[in-house]
Amino acid sequence: MKHQLLSRIEDKTAVIGIIGLGYVGLPLLLRFAEEGYRVLGFDIDMAKIGKLQQGQSYIKHIPAAPIAAVVSAGFFQGTTDFSRASEADVLIICVPTPLNKYREPDLSFVTSTTESIVPYLRPGQLISLESTTYPGTTDEELLPRIASTGLEVGKDIFLVFSPEREDPGNANFTTRTIPKVCGGATPDCLKVGLALYRRVIDHVVPVSSTRVAEMTKLLENIHRAVNIGLVNELKIVCSAMGIDIREVIDAAATKPFGFTPYYPGPGLGGHCIPIDPFYLTWKAREYNLHTRFIELAGEVNTAMPDWVVGQVMDALNERGKALKNARILVLGIAYKKNVDDMRESPSVVLMEKLQNKGAEVHYCDPHIPVFPKMREYHFNLKSCELSAESLASFDCILIATNHDAFDYDFIRREGKLIIDTRGVYREVWENVVKA
Q: CA-to-CA distance for 259 and 383, rounded, in angstroms?
């Protein structure tokens, strides 16, 4: 089976199934199709399938043109029918791995997806999990379900973990150029996984097991979360001392060794950094271990929106205005600049906290014209147009996400009070508070 599958991967007759066509699955779909593989895209959202088959994009930083090109070339088909998993030689799982309300791993998307395809698995297939998760997930959750079919992993069917490394909106790195880690359930599984990814990724990094690959992804994101927690805490200290933390970071970054700059913000956002560290803290408890360092960083980062709200209150008070009934405009509600991704966005947390304290909250985000339905938050709002009149009508403008589309000079000239959480304004201005 191994040699037949390797041959199909090599001559590009292998059909690639991508399960979950979001921020990870869609770029991967395009990468395989651009290399001449036929791709079968699976998603439970029929609207996504419909848009893709019409050559349209539903993710802002992914243009429609490459989608239309692979559709017209006949390299892509979309479906919500998971029984078609039997048609694919490769099945790559790219589904969410959120936390539940107790901040524990929610693997329901991974396990339900696996159970959906298990009845249709056959000899000669490769299964790859790309969803970020705790070490042991591939061995403990996927492998037994696959083995229940009677197929022997490493002989009849192959299983790898290869974590996604997408950075939405970052034009400097693409799916092809970002090195890709891959670990197999067996040596032959790894061999097949490497053969697959080397066809579409410039540099593939083999590791000794799926657990090493799973831990690698967590380390990458924990490293960022901890360092962001550090600079967020230093920002609070520097603010009390009247020091500009960003000036400090920029000066420290001139050291050519031993220092990596991280910048503070109003909190953590995105699907990875606020969530992934807690996958390890949860799994560590199984070994009677407590990840105090990681959890402390999480506490600091989670508390940042409250600190920012306090800065808003203080700035308004200094101008003789209470937060209650104040008109607040939040600039940018995506979790990072120049994207339309709102997953775990601290901007939304800020909006809720300000509203709960009696403020009249509005927002402006050129990438998100209407506030979408979310599991935990909902505001019946549309993005405001920025004009001299509208800016002057707000008691406070809170820069939460620093999109390049904003005219910051215009905003500063027309706004009464600006709270800058992103370091947009480096000079000192009377109506700007650096937070």
A: 39
CA angle (41 as vertex; 37, 42 as ends), nearest 5: 150
> pLDDT tens digits, residue range 315-332?
999 999 999 999 999 999
Q: Average pLDDT over the chain, rounded to whole? A: 95
Contacts of 180 (CB under 8 A, 6+ apart): 162, 165, 197, 201, 203, 204, 205
In this structure, which topology does domain 2-208 adopt according to CATH?
Rossmann fold (3.40.50)
Residue 276 has φ and ψ, to the nearest 5°, of -60, -40
Please give the Cα distance from 232 to 21 (Å, whole number): 34
CATH code of the domain made up of 228-434: 3.40.50.720
Domain with CATH 3.40.50.720 in the chain: 2-208, 228-434
pLDDT tens-digit readout, 195-237: 999 999 999 999 999 999 999 999 999 999 999 999 999 999 9
Active site residues: 272
Give pTM, 2 decimals: 0.92
> For residue 251, what are the contacts with CB-CB under 8 A and spacing of at least 6?
none
Percent of the chain with pLDDT over 90: 91
End-to-end alpha carbon distance in the chain:
59
